[in-house]
Structure formats: C-alpha cells, structure tokens
Amino acid sequence: MRRLLLPGVLLLLATAAAAQQADTLRTTSTLVLVPTRVTTTSSAGLNVTLRAEDFTLTDNGVPQKLRLEEASREPLAVIVLLQTGGAAPKQFANYAGISSLLEYALGSVRYRVSLITFDSKPEDRWPFSNDATNLRDAFQKPKPGDGGAAVLDAIDYGLDWFGDQHPRGRRLILLVSDEHFRAGDEALRQMTRRLAETNTTIYSLSFNAQRAYLIDELKHSSPENPPLFMSPDHPPLLHTFNLDRPLRQALSAMQSNAAEGVAALSGGTYMPFTNRKDLELQLTTFANDLSNRYILSFQPTNPTAGLHSLQVSLPQHPDLQATARTAYWHAAPDEKH
C-alpha cells in the first residue's frame, strides 16, 4: 500500500508545484497596455475596423507581438481638472460651455465622471457620477482661485482619486489649464512613471495666458512712452513705444509647452483654445477620439527596469495615423511603488 501511495503523492506534489509555478509566471509577467487613438485625413472618415496585426509597436526600438484587448466592462472613468487660479478667471466665460459639450462627448460611452478644481493646490472635488449634468453649476459658476496653478500637483491628486474610487478599467484626465506651467525634468519623469503605471491618458484643453496678454498689449496704446528728451537743443521724441514687456511675454510663450508634453507622454491629445468656438471644436474632436480608441497590449521581450520608449504605427494604412503614449515605466522587482 505504501509503495502504491508514494508515486501518487509525488505526482500530486509535482502537479501542485507545476500549477503554482504557472500561477507565478502569470502574476509576475509584465503586461503593458497602450491605449491608441486612430485618426484619418480622408474626407470619407474612419470606416475601417483594425486588427492587432495592422499595428506595429516597438519597445526601445524592438518590435513586439501585440494583442488587441476587448473594451473593458468597467465604465470609462473621467476626471476633469479645472484650473481656477492664475490667469484662469479670464477664461470663465468659456468654461461655461464645457458642461454641455462634455455631456455630448461622453454620450457614446459608459462613463463615470468627477471634477477637481485647483489653483496653487487642489481645491474642490466632486464625487464620481454617471451623469455629467451634475457638474453644470461647477462649470458655469467657478470660484476664482489664488494666483497659482499647480498643474502637476493636481494631476497627482487626480491619480490618487482614481485609485480610491476607480481602481480598475480605463482612466482619462481632461486637463483644462494654461498651456505653460513650470515642470522640471525630474517632476515630468515621475509624472511619466505614474501615468504609465496607472494606464491614464491625459487630454490637455489649454489656453495661452501669455498669448492673450501679448495681443492685448499690442492692441492698445498702453505701451506708449512719455516724451523722450534726447538733448536740451532738440525737441522731445513723441509716440515711442516700450515693447520690452510684450517681447518678454512673447519669448516666454515660445518656451516648451508643458501641457502638450504631458498629453503626448500619456498618449492623449493637446487641444488649444482661445475662444468659445475653438473650445467647441476641440471637445468635438475629443468626442470622436473616444469612439476611435484601441487598447493594445504586449509582454516586453526585454523587460529591463526603467523608462521605455514606445512607437506605434499603422504601416499598412498610410491614410491612418496612430497616436499612443510615447513611454512607459517598468519597475524593478524590488522597487517600491
């Protein structure tokens, strides 16, 4: 009896060990999700259904084997980060139209939406709801904030709010802010990592405070200097202009566009606006993007720790353009999250 039991016990232990090893392989393997937006310049619109083999994706230059994930059963979670500090109060008249446009944009998908306002720090926060109309008053009657605009802090706060309320499924941030904000290399590096780890896409709906200021300065007579006396023997020079301040604003506006950079890192879209008409057009683009997104996934062939560069293309479809996040972060096994 003992001889008969021993092979059976060994077989059972071997089977259990194999099952445990398989589970370990499944749970420790790295699966990278890459939400990808597909657009076309064709007047006929986007009328093709794509498969995984239509896409090419490289990880640090190395082609990867792709899968096309089915749409998550979880609803799309959306957080609107609304700047109310700094130069934002001048945009409040435009903000009033965001509510109805957001309702239209989200109308084609199952969603949960929240709103966070911020100035020099995150301020008010609305609970997640499956009805965007609950945010109408917030968009139409925002409270002016202080002189700050802590965009990266607001994004961090939003990612934490996702983790508390919507731990699974698709995540999207609609960032409504000035396009120019201070962000050091290390801060952007950490933001890239957090966006990659949480599979969050950012759409930057951005106004340009410097450009608006420059136009206003050059439109009015305020830059004119008082009479300039060059010599007691000559009449004063009249109608000279001090362009130093507008020129400094122009140079500032030429600096790196941080809002555009954050959107590109996450695979989202930069959507500038200067007036109500621009905003309506950009949010219509946003609505179209939501219905033309694919979720690609792959297991890296070289899962080295650190920042990885991504490139996605559609080589068999020259009339189509694929836009996805440009990087992801792979943590070392002993790295703390």
From TrEMBL:
Q: Span of the secretion signal?
A: 1-19
Question: InterPro entries annotated for this entry?
Answer: vWFA_dom_sf (IPR036465)
Q: Which domain of life is it from?
A: Bacteria
What's in the keyword line of the UniProt record?
Signal
Official protein name in the record: von Willebrand factor type A-like protein
Which organism is the protein's source?
Terriglobus roseus (strain DSM 18391 / NRRL B-41598 / KBS 63)
